[in-house]
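Folds abound. Consider this:
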Amino acid sequence: MVMYFMPLAQSKVTAQGQISVPAEIRRILGVGPGALLEWDEENGKIVVRRVGQYTSEEINKALFPSGVKGKTLAELKEGIARTMKGRHARR
């Protein structure tokens, strides 16, 4: 069975490389004039998100790039505390 998906919205690129963000997309992202958007490539797809908006999965991958298998809750808490202490320690 072949399924076709209609895009949520479309934008046209100007000669200067600019686009307008369609109203439906602005509503979904919760953005308005002056908002910052970031563009990323994930598994061959382009992802646009409001700056500072990350999923818990993305945060988990950033904090634990090699995964957390075999770690206890106490070990995870200690690792987080150690990282935060190192980042915010007075120098």
